[in-house]
Design brief:
The protein is mainly beta and 224 residues long. Helix content is 11%, strand content 42%. A five-stranded mixed beta sheet has the order 6-12-11-8-9, with no helix packed on it. Strands 13-2-15-16 form a four-stranded antiparallel beta sheet, with no helix packed on it. The longest helix is centred in the first third of the chain and has 20 residues, at 2-21.
């Protein structure tokens, strides 16, 4: 009897875990250029084709300042997210954005925690540093909880999506024709969906800044 109960208990556990995973699907998207080369730092985000995206609790994330660079270089957050900008360098930084979706400034600071910034409006945000011209970072603010950023392999995975139809979009800070880019519509059932986006990028200097070789020598004191 005890063996039967143990076996029944194991079966119930399997059924519970199966039920939890039932209906959840994944979108696997690959982003390449017109030569078929993988593109890093591209954002993939999906929204229901009909109706609004599910509500979510307010969240908070971090864009760090390490070795006189923003980390990560590209982020994606849902509208209503607060972002913290810790300064792990031993010099001061001055974070700012003049972007329409979010204008803000965090004046010179080091060795203390700056107040988080609320990103409450969907759109593109580019940030810089008033002291170090090469320090830039990009944030895409979206109205959906389903998003990811591509890695070195050009791939992004969006997991845990309920069944249904979704519009899936690609974005990159240097992408040409961003406003004309058409979404791909995919229907998710019990299985996963694989998508491929081919995009073209502007000249690298328009969305990227190389850190100068002598940056560490020029800025090594705590006065910036």
């Amino acid at each position: 009897m005890s063996q039967f109960c143990q076996g029944l208990g194991g079966l119930l556990l399997v059924l519970i875990f199966a039920a939890k995973g039932a209906g959840a699907a994944e979108i696997v998207a690959t982003v390449v250029d017109d030569d078929g080369e993988a593109i890093r730092h591209a954002v993939i985000h999906a929204e229901p084709a009909a109706g609004a995206a599910p509500n979510g609790a307010p969240t908070e994330t971090v864009i760090d300042q390490i070795d006189k660079l923003y980390t990560p270089f590209v982020s994606v957050v849902r509208a209503g997210t607060r972002i913290r900008f810790p300064n792990r360098d031993n010099i001061k930084h001055h974070v700012y954005s003049f972007s329409r979706a979010k204008k803000f400034e965090l004046p010179l600071y080091a060795g203390r925690a700056a107040a988080p910034v609320l990103f409450d409006k969907p759109g593109e945000v580019t940030m810089g540093c008033n002291i170090h011209d090469w320090m830039i970072a990009h944030v895409l603010v979206v109205d959906t909880p389903h998003f990811a950023v591509t890695g070195d392999d050009g791939q992004a995975r969006l997991g845990g999506l309920p069944p249904g139809d979704y519009r899936v979009r690609v974005w990159h800070p240097g992408m040409k024709g961003k406003r004309k880019a058409k979404p791909q519509v995919v229907r998710l059932g019990d299985g996963n969906a694989e998508l491929r986006f081919e995009i073209r990028l502007k000249s690298r200097h328009k969305w990227w800044r190389e850190k100068p070789d002598d940056a560490d020598e020029r800025y090594e004191r705590n006065d910036g």
